Amino acid sequence: MGARHARRTAAMTLASPLSSPLSKTQALVIDGNATSRSLMTAQLRELGVGHVRQATRVRDARVILETQPYDIVLCDYYFDGSELSGQDLLDELRREQLLPYATVFVMVTGEASYAKVAEAAEAALDAYLVKPYTSAALADRLANARHRKLELKAIFDAIDARDFDRAADLCLERFQQKATYWLYAARIGAELLLRLERHAEARELYEAIIAARTVPWARLGVARTEVASGNLSAARRTLETLIGDMPDQADSYDLMGRVQMEQGEIDAALATYRTAATLTPGCLLRQQHCGTLAFYAGQRDEALKMLERSLAQGLRSKLFDWHSLALLALMRFDAKDGKGLKYAADALAQGIERAPRDVRLQRFDVLLQGLRLLMERRLADALQLARDFARRAADEAFDLEAACLLIALWVRMARQDIELSEMDLLMSQLGLRFCSSKSATEVMLAMAEGHEPSSRLMREANARVFAISETAMRQAMRGDAQAGVQLLVEQGGLTLNAKLIDMAALVLKRYRDRMSDPSALAPRIEDLQRRYVQASGQGLKAARAAGGMALRG
Question: CA within 20 to 30 Å of 224's CA: 5, 232, 291, 544, which one?
């Protein structure tokens, strides 16, 4: 009688801070063991949860959570016979912002894995339970987690309203006062400061967190501020130290791989992502990163293995990147695997049916159509399709990924002994527009796959962009910033190169007071940035930050 009363009291405590009763909430139980799954379901229903759904595999749970929000998720950490863990599921959903802030995610673990879960709880978990546990303990964890969300509601309301400055200020205020949930709020605040490009303040906050309470994500946060500030060498040193101290933290390898890619070191980035993928063998995102880098590095057997595995595990998942399918299609074409190429085309057709207006999917479809035409030896049709695709290369939203698809198609056209009189001009134009960083240049060269004329033209384009940048900076430093910015604007407008356009904005900002007529150039720069930098995603740090906390807005 006393135990039942305790459970009912706990349930009432759970419901008290909420605007709606538990009877209106929905829960998902994820556990491979039927007995354990039934027990969890019964406990939730006894606490008054209105609807409880069950999943036996992490893969199935991922698809369920991507398509429908749940108020409560109760997930086991370990799954027999699966490389995927409950932590893998949580990491991927949070990283890709597929788990709503309102969802309470509770990890259930045995004694053997307690240490790993307890460490993760500092960062992303709402609550964790160690088996065996009582219904009262479950109710208590749920109540605490939901209470924290209520306490921080003002912060997330500001984020929902896209008032990031206010949200950051609220986080800083809670951290400075060491108010309830100050550590959690500090992490949110640091993420917001990075989003607002207040990099110095974000670094100060991370360092203050470390001084108050050393946590791995704060040390990783320092490295993230260094990457965001463009100080890649410092970030690399920070990450080398962090990886040396904590070699099992996969997020550190993610960020190190990004730094290595930014520095044009594809082979080193591949080795780093191999480690990350080995640490988290069930992580769909890391599998795809590893497979993509293996493709760029010319390691086709490894690329095929990793990307085939990703396709088999995650085709139905929102975490599956259709770019992986495009790379698989290229490898299947090169292997003269018509059946495999058709399978890729059929899979893509299903994706297009679900999202018929998705521009990325339409581009992948053009590539696969071209490959199938080439395989069927319908060369005239393939050439017409390739030319139509090439005409889009100057479009505002045409991005580096699209350029790489175009390069891959034309390189395979060139192997068919077709007269391609316009190919040199096309490769030069693509190089001038998209050779804006070491990583972009290396990826484009990788997609050229040893086609020497194309590779040579892209290297020449990269050298020309670098020379224009150097000339403009030299003019600015010698006192003629007006001429330097004018050069960058003219060449940025001709080439559509994001580096030149962004550099024009930076030089204008730095030397504005020393220029004779800065206002004449500012509108043109803003227009170019809007049309060819922001629209195509070039020059922006759009990738999800390793180790970052997913925020709404």
Answer: 291
The residue behind tokens 């020379």 is 467
Q: Write down how long the chain is.
A: 553
Structure tokens at 77: 């950490």
Strand partners, 106: 74, 127
Q: Which long-range contacts (CB under 8 A, 24 or more apart) does 460-465 make?
A: 460/428, 460/431, 461/428, 461/430, 461/431, 461/432, 461/435, 462/431, 462/435, 464/432, 465/432, 465/435, 465/436, 465/495, 465/497, 465/499, 465/500
From residue 183, give the alpha-carbon distance in Å to each of 15, 172, 206, 354.
Answer: 25, 10, 11, 41
Rounded Cα–Cα distance for residues 47 and 45 (Å): 5
DSSP 406-441: HHHHHHHHHTTT---TTHHHHHHHHHHHH--SHHHH
The DSSP bridge pattern shows strands 127-130 and 51-55 to be unpaired
Identity of residue 54: Q
Closest CA to 429 of 461, 405, 384: 461
What is the DSSP track for 139-179? Answer: HHHHHHHHHHHHHTHHHHHHHHTT-HHHHHHHHHHHHHHT-
Tens digits of residue pLDDT in 179-228: 988 888 898 899 899 989 999 999 999 998 888 876 778 889 999 999 99
Q: Provide the CA 450 distance to its chain's centre, in angstroms.
A: 29
Query: Rounded to the nearest 5 degrees, what angle is found at the Cα of 545, between the Cα atoms of 173 and 537?
Result: 115
Read off the tokens for 343.
């399978």
- The amino acid that residue 20 corresponds to is S
pLDDT digits (tens, 9 = 90+) for 243-287: 998 898 888 999 999 999 999 999 999 999 999 999 888 788 899
Residue from 134, 183, 121 nearest 4 by CA? 134
pTM given for the model? 0.78
pLDDT at 457: 97
In the structure, how many helices (H) and strands (E) does the chain have?
27, 5
Locus of tokens 């190169």: 497
C-beta separation of 381 from 483 below 8 A = no
